[in-house]
Each structure stands twice: as structure tokens, then as C-alpha cells.
Amino acid sequence: MKNAVCVVPLLIVLLVQPLLCHGGQAFPDFSLQGELTQEHRQYLGVDSPLVRLSEVQAEYLFIEVYSLYCAPCQREAPTVNEMYETTIRTGLGSTVKFLGIAAGNTPYEVEVFREQFQVEFPLFSDEDYVVHEAIGNMGTPYFVLVRVGGTDNLEVLYAHEGAPEQMEGVYEEMIRLAIPSDQ
Amino acid sequence: MRSVVFLPLLVSMFLGLVVVPALVVQPAQAEFTKGALYDPGTLKPRDSKLKVAVGDPAPEFELPSLVHGTVRLSDYLGKQNVVLSFVPAAWTPVCSGQWPGYNLAKRIFSQNNTVLLGITVDNLPTLHAWTAAMGDLWFPVLSDFWPHGEVASRYGLLRGEGVTERALVVIDTKGVIRYLDVSDINKRPDLGVLAKELDKLNQ
Fold first, then answer.
1. Cα distance from B144 to chain A (closest Cα, Å)?
2. Which of A147, A161, B61, B64 could be a cystine partner for A155, CB 3.0 to 4.6 Å?
3. In this complex, do A71 and B103 lie within 8 Å of one another by their Cβ atoms?
4. β-strand A60-66 against A31-33: which pairing, if any?
């Protein structure tokens, strides 16, 4: 009984904590414009270069809000590429789909970043900071994992502002949240 | 028996309270995190009158730089095109992004035989601390600190409050100004426009 007194409050903390970390808030169901190759459209399962997030054929989206003009974003780029490649290699490519939103970057600047880091996943220009402002002007890079539930139904499962000390931790957390252990 | 029941519970508590937060709630790295930069708010877009124009010979200058010693504009005469990137101040939001972008876009400069010179009116120690937070910059960073803003003033780019405009000056190998852009100080100029101007130098 004495143990139960100690354990119950801890259990409550344990259960509530993911909510504290991840919020569970809605993510705006934006339409994004990007220079998409045929491979990108195939990956996203869309026909047009104007892509509404909820139209992407995926259970989860891993979104990085970044900028060419952000040194930490540049530094993390190879690791984010590795994360993307790992999802493809391990057969998670159709479950979790990656996309980058370039805050304040023109399409030209998006291409400079893509070319420099050989980014394979789709990148979209948010030239006028519309997305960036709507999600609260978060510092870049900003990583978000959302569950796609349908039109205007995107649930934030995980969010991280700034460059994480260990991107591996972000990847593991993404997999933990996106792929429940019973699968 | 009781300990057997509670062991998984304890493990899950350990994971939940120690491991997961360690993965999730990481502090962002020191560099340009919120709070590291001073936001001056929205400023008057322009506050100076140009003293040079496209087609003019670029006024000569000599300034101390962080790691390239004393830099003279004439060092590049007949050798390389030069882009002067004046930015208003160290440790402010827009400026702190502009040069890391140019740092990544080195190819756009080098493929057009162009050197970039970054200039602010901050002193060298401030520029040292600020640019160190950007990582290694490939281009010289010059201090127009003393006499204060003299070079910026020579180009007509010194503002009333003592900082420079956010301006780009493209100078060809003959020392002639080929492109001038004084941006709204609150906004970063599009790299695509500068890249097109650099392409024109070789045409």
C-alpha cells in the first residue's frame, strides 16, 4: 500500500509527460508550393506542385522548418538526410514522409540548399514566412512529427526547436512515436 | 514477488522520467538561440544617401580584417571581382543569418571569380565572437569601426544611428561598380538576385 502511494503519482507523471513534451496540438494544414520532381510527387503521392499537407499519402509527416541562412540547419542537414535514408532503407518510407519548409527562403535559395546538401526529400519555399509565423515563429531548425488524420486534422506528436544535441535521439523518438511497439 | 511486479514499473518509470526527457527536451545549441541576439525591432528601411552609383569607380579603402590581415580593395584589382556585403550590426537577427547563407553559397561567388568581403562597423573582438558562432567563414570579415564607419560613409551607406545599411556592392576586376543594392534594413536580400548579377560579370 505504501508503495502504491509512491507509485501512483509517478505513474501520473509518466502518463502526462508525453503530453507535456509533445503537446498534442494541431498542426496547420498548409498548402505548400515547391519545385517537385517526378520522384518527389511519387514519394508524396501527389499530382500537383501545390501540396496540402493532409493530402500527402503518409501516416506521419516529419517536417523540418529550416533556412539556408541558419548555420545550425546547415550543420544538421547531413544528419537529417541520413534519417530520411534510414526510413527508406528500413521500409518506413511510406509510413513516415519527410519534408522541409524553408522559412523566408526564395525558391532559388531552396535550390541552393538542396544542391549543396543533396537533399532528396521534398523542400518547399515559405518565402513570406506564412508557415513560420503560423507555427509561432519558432527558431530554426524546428522539427515536428505529425500524425495525418485527414483534412485539417494534423496532430503534433513531437516537436523540437533548435539543433538537438543528438539527432539520433530525435530519430529514435520519431520511430517510437510513429511505430507503436505492437507492430 | 512484489519486487518482480514492480521491476517493469520501475524500468518504465526510469525510461519515462529519465531517458525520454533526455531525448526530447534537449536544450538548443548555444549558437544564435533565442536570447543570444539583440532584436532592435523594425527600423527605418533606409537612412542614408548613396554617394556612389553604378558605373563609378569604387572608392578605395583599407580595413583590418579578422584573419586576413589588412585588406585593401585594390588588392583585388585586375584579379577578382569583389562583392562588399555591408550589414548593420553583429548579434542582430537578420545579419546573423545573411553571412551563414553566403558561407554556404561559396560556389556562386567562386564560379564567377568573385571574392566576398563582409563589412560592419563593429570592432574586431565583437566580430570575432559573433562570426565564431557562425562557424568557419570562407570570406574576409572587415571592421569599419575606426574612424567609425568611414568606409561606409565614403559609399554613402552610414545611417544616422551609426550603423551601416544592409547593402551589396558588386565591383568588377577593373574596380568599377556594376551593381548596388541597398535593401530595406529589416529584410535580407534574395541570394538569387545577387547570383544573377554575378553571372552578368562574365558576359
1. 24
2. A147
3. yes
4. unpaired
